[in-house]
Write a structure and sequence with these properties.
The structure holds three protein chains of three kinds. By secondary structure, chain A is mainly α. Chain A has helices at residues 3-23, 38-60, 75-98, 100-115, 120-141. Chain A folds into two domains: 3-60; 75-151, no CATH class. Chain A has five helices and no strands. The longest helix of chain A is centred in the middle third of the chain and has 24 residues, at 75-98. By secondary structure, chain B is an alpha/beta fold. Chain B has two domains: 28-126 and 257-324, Bordetella uptake gene, domain 1 (D-Maltodextrin-Binding Protein, domain 2, 3-Layer(aba) Sandwich), CATH 3.40.190.150; 127-231, D-Maltodextrin-Binding Protein, domain 2 (3-Layer(aba) Sandwich), CATH 3.40.190. In chain B, strands 1, 2, 3, 4, 5, 6, 7, 8, 9 and 10 form a ten-stranded mixed β-sheet that branches. Chain B is globular. Chain B has helices at residues 2-25, 46-60, 79-86, 101-107, 142-151, 167-178, 195-203, 214-222, 269-282, 286-294, 304-324, and strands at 35-39, 68-72, 94-98, 119-134, 157-160, 187-190, 209-213, 226-231, 256-263, 298-302. Chain C has one domain. Helix content of chain C is 76%, strand content 1%. Chain C has a two-stranded antiparallel ribbon. Classes of the chains: A mainly alpha, B alpha/beta, C mainly alpha. Chains A and C meet through α1, α2, α3, α4 and α5 of A and α3, α8, β2, α9 and α18 of C.
C-alpha cells in the first residue's frame, strides 16, 4: 500500500459516506431553486473523482514505496497522541462542573506528565502557574467569562 | 485597598447571610450567590449588549446585593445558552437573555426548548422592523411596492439575513399576505452576514429591497441613500418621523423585534416574585432609561404575566406565517 | 487634494494630543498581546477591552479600538511564527514560511520582517484610506453575489495550485474543507445537513476551532516523536532582531505590491484578511524566481501576506466609516461599542464630525509607528522562548490551545472537535495531503455556496450571470489560468522525475 493509494482510498470512502449523507438532506418548498443538496453533490463528485484519479495514477506509476502509519514502530508516539486527545476531551467534559481552575490544573498535570516524564515538581509548578495565571488575567482582569464550577461559592469575586 | 475591603466585607456578609438564610427563606427570597446572566451569543451582539446593560443597571442602582457576572454561551442560535440555563432548575441566581428566536428555533425544529421550559421573566426592549428600498427606486410606499410584486414576483429580490425563519423574514411574509400578494412566490436572497452584506447589495442595485431592523438602516436614511417603505411600530418613530407605520397604510400589523429575560425553570413563588419586582424597579431607574436612549432602543417592558401571554400569542402568529410558505409543515 | 491635506492636518491635530497618543500606545500594546494568544483574535480583543472605553470621548474611544485592532494584527503573526499557532485566520499564511524560518534559527529575521511588513501595510492602508475611500467604496458596491463567487473560486484555485505536491491531493483537501463547511443548518432553506444528530453541530464548525486543532495541537503531536530535541537555534542569532540588507531588498517589493491588494480585498464585506493573505502568498510565489523555497522559509512569503493583512484591516474600516456597516467581525464589535457611546459611524460622520473620522485615520499613522516601536523590542524576549525545552513548551502550547478554544464559543463540545481535528491534521500530514486548501475551503465554503445560490436566485436561474458580468468573468478567467498553470507545472515535475 503506497501513500497515494492510501490517500486515494480515504478520499473515495469519505466521498461515498458524504454522498450518502447528502441524500439524507431534507428538501423544503421554500428557499431557492438550487436547494440544499446540489452543492454537497458537487463536493462528493469532486472528492470521489480526485480520489479515483489518484488511485488510477498510482497503479500506473512505478512508485512502490510502502506506506505505514507506524502504529507498531511508534507505539509510544501514538499512545501519547491518543492519551492527549482523551485528556483534551475529558477536560471539556468536566470544565463546567469542576470550574476552570481545577479542570485546567488537572489537564495540565496530565499532559505535562505525559510529555515531561518523571519531573513531578516541575509539572506541578507548570500546572499551578498556568491555571492560576490564566484565570487571574482572563477572568479577573479582562472579565472574560470562565466557569467557576464548584469553587463558585467559595471564590469571593 | 478599597477592593480588598470590599472583598473582606463581602465575605463577612456572605457568612452572615448564610447564617440567616434559613430564617429569611420562609417569606422573602434573595440571591444567595453571584448572579449569572447568560448571553446566549458571543460578545458584541444584541443579547450580549442587553445582558451587560441589565448588569450595569442592576449594579449601579444597587437593586441586588450580589455581584453579577455575564456569561457568553453562543451556539445553536441561542439554544446552547438556554440549555445551560435549563440545567439550573430551581436556582434563582441564573437569568438569560431571549428574543423571538426562542419561539422560532422551536418552530423550525432547530431546538426542542421553548418558553414553556423556563420562567419568562420580562420583555425589556424592542427594535422595529422596516422594509427599505434604494432612494432612487420607483416605489414610495408599501402599496406601490407590493403591487409591483404582484405583477412580476421574479423581478423583485428581497434581501434577508442571517437565515430564513427569523423576524425580518416573518415581517415580509406577513406583509406580502396582508397586501394581497403570494408569499410563496417571493424571491428571498439570504445574506448570512446580515446588514453588512444586505445594505451594500441594496445600494449596489443587486437586490430590490431588504427587510431588516430599523437601527441598521438609520445612517443610510439620514444620508438620503435609502428609503423606508414602512415601519412595524404602533406609532411613528421619532427618529424617522416621515416614515408611515404599516398600520397607517391600512395593514393591521404591529411587530416588535423584542429582547427580554428568562429565568431558570422550577423557581419558587418567592424567587419569581423577587425577580419580577426587581426588574419592575429596574426599568424605572435613570441608568436603564439612559442606556436605552444611547442605544436607540425602545422600551418594551412586560412583566412576567404579560410576557408569558404575549409569547403564547406570538407563537401562534409565527407558526401561521412559516406554514404559509412551507418552511414548516 | 488640498481639502484632503487640510482634513488630514485637522486629524493629526486630534491624533497627536497626549491623551490620544497614550491610548494608542495602550491599545496597541494590549492588542499585540491579545493577538498573540491563540483563539483571541482582534474581535475578542476589542470586545473585552470595551469597558476601558466607557467614559472616553467618542474620538478617543474609536482611536483606541482601532489601535487594538491593528495591534492584534501585529500580534497575530507572532504565535504563528514562534509556535506554528495562528492567532486568527488571517495569520494562517504566516505559519507557512514564518515557522520554518524560526525553526531554522532565523526567528529574529522573521519577527522583524513581520513587524516591518505590518507597518508598511498599515501605512499604505492608511494612505489608501485617505485618498481612495470614496472610489473604492463605490467599487465594492459593484460586488454582487456573482462577483463574490468568482473571486472566491479564484482564491481557492490559486491556493491549490500553490500548495506543495500533487494537484489532485490539493483538490481532495479542498473537497474535505467544503465537506466540513456544509455541516450545520443551511442558511437558505433551513435544512439541517450532515450533523449526524449532534445538536452542537447545527451552527456549523467554527473554523478557528479547526485551526487550533490542525495547527497548534497537531504541531504538538508532530513533535511527540522527538520530545527532547531543542529547536536548532544558536545563541548568536538569538539577540539579533533585525533584517540584513539582502533580506530588506528581497522583501520591500512584496510589501509594497501586496498592501494595495490587501486594502481592496478588505473593503469587500465578509471577504477579509483570509482571502487577502492567501492571495498575497499566491502572488509572491508565482512571481518568485525561486518558488521551491516557499514553505521552507522564504522571507518574501512572510512579508507579502503580512503587509496585505494590515492593509486589509484598514480596508475593513471603509464600510464602517462610509456606510456605517461593519465589514468584519472586529468592526462589528467596534460598531456596538460606539453605539453605547452614542455615536453611529456612517456617511454622515464625515460631514458632521470630520474631526472624528479624520482623527481616526491620522491616528493610524501615529499608531503604526508606535506599534513598530513596541514590536521590534518585544521580539527579543519572544525569541528567547525558543530556548525553553520542548518538553515544557509543548504542554504550554496544549494549554493555550485548549484555553483559546474555550474562549471562541465557550463550548465544551469544541474540545472534542479540537482533539479530533488534531488527529485528522496529523494523519493528513502523514499522507502528504496539503492543509491550506482544506482550511481555506472550510473558511470560504459557506460563503461560496451562498453566493452561488444568491447569484442564481437573482438571475432567476440563469448561469449567464457569472460570465456576463465583467468583474465576475475576469476572476473566472484568472481562476482558469491559475489552474492550467498548475497542471502544466505539475506535469513538468512528473516528467523530470520520470
Amino acid at each position: 500500500m503506497t501513500k497515494n493509494r492510501t490517500a486515494g482510498i480515504l478520499a473515495v470512502v469519505l466521498g461515498v459516506f458524504y454522498l450518502a449523507g447528502a441524500f439524507a438532506v431534507p428538501v423544503f418548498d421554500a428557499g431557492d431553486q438550487v436547494g440544499p443538496r446540489a452543492f454537497p453533490f458537487l463536493i462528493a463528485a469532486l472528492v470521489i473523482g480526485c480520489g479515483a484519479a489518484l488511485l488510477v495514477r498510482d497503479f500506473r506509476s512505478a512508485e512502490r514505496k510502502p506506506f505505514s502509519w507506524g502504529f507498531a514502530v511508534d507505539r509510544v508516539v501514538w499512545g501519547r497522541i491518543l492519551l492527549t486527545m482523551a485528556a483534551g476531551i475529558a477536560y471539556g467534559l468536566v470544565l463546567d462542573d469542576l470550574g476552570y481552575l481545577i479542570a485546567t490544573f488537572l489537564f495540565m498535570i496530565l499532559v505535562s506528565s505525559l510529555i515531561n516524564v518523571g519531573r513531578h515538581v516541575q509539572n506541578l509548578t507548570i500546572a499551578v502557574l498556568f491555571s492560576v495565571v490564566t484565570f487571574v488575567s482572563f477572568a479577573l482582569i479582562l472579565k472574560l467569562s470562565l466557569p467557576r464550577g464548584i469553587l463558585g461559592a467559595v471564590l469571593p469575586f | 485597598m478599597n477592593r480588598k475591603w470590599g472583598v473582606l466585607s463581602g465575605l463577612i456578609a456572605a457568612a452572615l447571610v448564610a447564617g440567616g438564610a434559613q430564617a429569611a427563606l420562609a417569606k422573602d427570597w434573595k440571591p444567595q450567590r453571584p448572579i449569572e446572566i447568560i448571553a446566549p451569543a458571543g460578545p458584541g451582539g444584541g443579547w450580549d449588549l442587553l445582558s451587560r446593560t441589565v448588569q450595569k443597571a442592576l449594579t449601579e442602582e444597587k437593586l441586588v446585593d450580589r455581584p453579577i457576572i455575564v456569561t457568553n454561551k453562543p451556539g445553536g442560535g441561542g439554544a446552547a445558552g438556554w440549555t445551560y440555563l435549563k440545567g439550573k432548575e430551581g436556582q434563582g441566581e441564573f437569568l438569560a437573555a431571549t428574543s423571538p428566536l426562542i419561539l422560532q428555533n422551536n418552530l423550525l425544529g432547530k431546538s426542542p426548548l421553548t418558553f414553556h421550559d423556563f420562567f419568562p421573566l420580562a420583555a425589556l426592549m424592542a427594535e422595529w422592523e422596516v422594509v427599505a428600498v434604494k432612494a432612487d427606486s420607483p416605489w414610495k410606499d408599501g402599496k406601490a411596492f407590493f403591487e409591483a410584486m404582484k405583477k412580476d414576483p421574479s423581478s423583485m429580490h428581497i434581501g434577508v439575513g442571517p437565515a430564513l425563519g427569523n423576524d425580518d423574514h416573518i415581517q415580509f411574509l406577513t406583509l406580502t399576505k396582508e397586501f394581497g400578494a403570494d408569499p410563496k412566490a417571493v424571491k428571498f436572497v439570504v445574506y448570512p452576514k446580515t446588514a453588512s452584506e444586505q445594505i451594500p447589495a441594496l445600494l449596489g442595485g443587486h437586490i430590490q429591497a431588504i427587510t431588516i431592523s430599523l437601527a441598521e438602516t438609520l445612517e443610510q436614511v439620514k444620508a438620503g441613500k435609502i428609503r423606508l417603505l414602512g415601519v412595524s411600530s404602533p406609532e411613528r418613530v421619532p427618529a424617522i418621523p416621515e416614515v408611515p407605520t404599516w398600520k397607517e397604510q391600512g395593514v393591521d400589523f404591529v411587530f416588535p423585534h423584542w429582547r427580554g429575560l428568562i429565568a431558570a425553570p422550577g423557581l419558587s413563588a418567592e424567587q419569581k416574585k423577587f425577580w419580577n419586582d426587581t426588574i419592575a424597579k429596574m426599568v424605572k431607574t435613570p441608568t436603564w432609561k439612559k442606556s436605552l436612549e444611547t442605544l436607540e432602543w425602545d422600551s418594551f417592558y412586560q412583566n412576567a404575566a404579560a410576557h408569558e401571554a404575549f409569547l403564547g400569542k406570538q407563537d401562534v402568529l409565527m407558526r401561521d406565517s412559516l406554514k404559509s410558505v412551507g418552511l414548516i409543515k | 487634494m488640498d481639502a484632503v491635506f487640510h482634513n488630514l492636518l485637522l486629524g493629526l491635530d486630534l491624533a497627536l494630543t497626549p491623551t490620544n497618543v497614550l491610548w494608542v500606545f495602550i491599545g496597541g500594546l494590549m492588542g499585540t498581546v491579545i493577538g498573540m494568544l491563540p483563539g483571541l483574535g482582534p474581535a475578542t480583543g476589542v470586545a473585552i477591552l470595551i469597558p476601558i472605553t466607557y467614559g472616553m470621548n467618542p474620538a478617543t474611544a474609536l482611536i483606541t479600538m482601532c489601535a487594538i485592532y491593528y495591534g492584534a494584527m501585529f500580534g497575530g503573526s507572532r504565535a504563528a511564527i514562534m509556535i506554528n499557532t495562528p492567532g486568527d485566520a488571517s495569520a494562517i499564511v504566516s505559519c507557512f514560511d514564518g515557522y520554518p524560518m524560526a525553526k531554522s534559527g532565523r526567528a529574529g529575521s522573521a519577527l522583524a520582517v513581520s513587524a516591518i511588513a505590518s507597518f508598511v501595510g498599515g501605512i499604505v492602508g492608511m494612505i489608501c484610506l485617505t485618498f481612495f475611500t470614496a472610489p473604492v467604496a463605490a467599487m465594492a458596491l459593484q460586488f454582487g453575489p456573482a462577483e463574490k463567487f468568482s473571486l472566491m473560486l479564484f482564491a481557492l484555485t490559486a491556493t491549490i495550485t500553490l500548495s506543495e505536491g500533487s494537484v489532485l491531493k490539493g483538490f481532495i483537501a479542498m473537497g474535505m474543507g467544503f465537506m466540513l463547511s456544509t455541516i450545520g443548518i443551511d442558511g437558505q432553506s433551513g435544512a439541517i445537513r450532515f450533523t449526524m444528530g449532534i445538536s452542537e453541530l447545527q451552527d456549523g464548525i467554527d473554523f478557528l476551532v479547526m485551526m487550533i486543532g490542525l495547527y497548534a495541537v497537531a504541531e504538538v503531536f508532530k513533535n511527540y516523536k522527538a520530545i527532547d530535541v531543542r529547536y536548532d537555534v544558536d545563541a548568536k542569532s538569538i539577540g539579533r532582531v533585525w533584517l540584513s540588507w539582502a533580506e530588506f531588498k528581497a522583501t520591500i517589493m512584496p510589501m509594497l505590491r501586496n498592501s494595495p491588494l490587501g486594502f481592496c480585498v478588505g473593503v469587500l464585506p465578509g471577504a477579509g484578511g483570509t482571502i487577502a493573505t492567501f492571495l498575497a502568498y499566491a502572488v509572491e510565489k508565482s512571481v518568485s524566481k525561486k518558488p521551491e523555497t516557499f514553505g521552507k522559509g522564504a522571507i518574501e512569503g512572510l512579508a507579502g501576506p503580512e503587509a496585505a493583512n494590515n492593509a486589509c484591516s484598514c480596508g475593513a474600516l471603509v464600510p464602517l466609516l462610509t456606510l456605517g456597516i461593519p465589514g468584519s467581525g472586529t468592526t462589528a464589535v467596534m460598531l456596538g461599542a460606539l453605539m453605547m457611546l452614542g455615536v453611529r459611524p456612517g456617511p454622515v460622520l464625515f460631514e458632521q464630525h470630520p474631526e472624528i473620522a479624520w482623527g481616526v485615520i491620522a491616528s493610524m499613522l501615529v499608531g503604526n509607528v508606535i506599534l513598530l516601536m513596541i514590536n521590534l523590542p518585544l521580539a527579543v524576549p519572544l525569541v528567547r522562548l525558543l530556548k525553553i525545552p520542548q518538553r515544557i513548551m509543548l504542554p504550554l502550547i496544549l494549554g493555550m490551545g485548549y484555553m483559546g478554544t474555550y474562549f471562541l464559543n465557550y463550548s465544551a463540545f469544541d474540545f472534542i472537535l479540537v482533539s479530533v481535528c488534531a488527529l485528522g491534521g496529523y494523519m493528513l500530514v502523514k499522507l502528504e495531503i496539503p492543509i491550506p486548501p482544506l482550511v481555506l475551503a472550510l473558511i470560504l465554503g459557506a460563503m461560496t455556496e451562498q453566493s452561488f445560490r444568491n447569484a442564481l436566485t437573482i438571475a432567476n436561474g440563469s448561469f449567464g450571470i457569472f460570465y456576463e458580468k465583467p468583474i465576475s468573468l475576469a476572476f473566472l478567467v484568472l481562476a482558469a489560468v491559475s489552474l492550467v498553470y498548475a497542471l502544466r507545472k505539475h506535469k513538468k515535475i512528473v516528467q523530470m522525475r520520470d
